[in-house]
Amino acid sequence: MAVTLHDVARAAGVSIKTVSNVINNFEHIRPATRQKVQLAIDELGYRPNLSARSLRSGRSGVIGLVVPEFSLSYFAELADAVIKAAERHGQVVQIEQTNGDRARELEVLSSPRIQFSDGVLFSPLGMSNDDADALTVPYPLVLLGERIFGGPVDHVTMRNVEAARAATEHLIATGRRRIAVIGAHEGEIIGSAGLRLRGYREALAAAGIPFDPAIIANTTLWHRSNGATAMRELLATGVCFDAVFGLNDTLALGAMRVLQEAGLRVPHDVAVIGFDDLDEARYSLPTLTTVDPGRTEIAETAVRVLLDRIQGAQPDAAPVEYLADFSIVERESTAIS
């Protein structure tokens, strides 16, 4: 038999109205009461009837999350963080994958399926600033990622330039001067690759180190195989380098494997740093130094901002850009004992 509101109220020792208020994340509920109700919900395994809830409130209790691809671990871990943040607000997450295809991204924005949700967190990869007008949609939308800036909706993203500069400065501080980059996109200015390359170049310039395009390896995608291929090609040129900055962790991990296959010691011969602080970076051999870009903060901020828009808080407020804090996570791949 399905658990009901009555069952939860009885177990928590509160009224049905209080349980309903907790489920709908109403304000002005004492933390102790909220905790007591949530504990009863968890112990009994209560699940709200979303259809009935939608009829009563005009809201479904569902938010959408649109990401490029789950084969990139960053987006899988971002989705996990979003789901956890949403659950704390009594929300369910509906996920769509676009494969980074611009046409698919534009299609999803107008899809009746995604509009069943109360609002959407949207991370495009194929779209660009030229598509900013497409973000004007008839439902609350919060933009994620680095493809569009200055658009008509709230935007939650990371400090790509500053974080990449800090990553490069970390390598310079260990005495490295020939720092190769894996994952650049030729000609890109706006986008993760373009912004992170800018931070890299700023760090070199500040340290008086000349920029050398010969140690910049372009890739199309940012998977492990791309990092491995780019590193094989870089080694084949015979160019000298003593460090590698992978523009994401998966590129860095692929590159690090090839360095070791070639007989180069990490970090003694070549130091390696990545970007994203994926869980697997803790378990590589050696463990990977990386940038924590504030993924949890991004998820929690994006969910909070979206729910504020859904609930009509400051409906006429102008769109705001939120930038998460970052940190360098030093591990074995850059630390010589």
Explain how this protein is built.
- The protein is α/β, with parallel strands linked by helices.
- It has eleven helices and twelve strands.
- It has helices at residues 5-12, 16-23, 31-44, 50-57, 73-88, 102-109, 160-173, 192-206, 224-237, 249-261, 295-310, and strands at residues 62-67, 92-97, 119-122, 141-144, 154-158, 179-184, 216-218, 243-246, 271-273, 290-292, 321-324, 327-329.
- A six-stranded parallel β-sheet has the order 2-1-3-4-5-11, covered by helices on one side. Strands 7-6-8-9 form a four-stranded parallel β-sheet, sandwiched between helices. It has a two-stranded antiparallel ribbon with strand order 10-12.
- α5 links the parallel β1 and β2.
- The longest helix has 16 residues, at 73-88.
- The mean pLDDT is 92.
Can you summarize the main beta sheet?
6 strands, parallel
Total strands: the figure is 12
Overall SS class: alpha/beta
Helix content: 25-40%
**Order of helical and strand elements:** HHHHEHEHEEEHEHEHEHEEHEE
Concise summary:
The protein is an alpha/beta fold and 337 residues long.
